[in-house]
Amino acid sequence: xxxxxxxxxxxxxxxxxxxQYFLRKIPRLTAxxxxxxxxxxxxxxxxxxxxxxxxxxxNLKTSFGxxxxxxxxxxxxxxxxxxxxxxxxxxxxAHDKAKGIAG
Length: 103
Fold this sequence. Notes:
Helix 1 (12-33) runs parallel beside helix 2.
């Protein structure tokens, strides 16, 4: 799976924190997305300027269709976790649906 990253209002330290944390989460997403290859994921990381919060968006484009999840939270780690969980749920649901159609 190909990942493309976009950062808005993110410092070098925040980017480093995101990179380290998100790299630990990629295997779960890659495993779920392997059923829908080829897949490209656009990852957007944004820090809100007026409040201390981060928004993470994952837009996964696959041969089966597009999946999108987004979440904002006060820490990068929590925003990543919640967004990843939302996207994982969508992929699991789509996989189950595809299995039902095929089987």
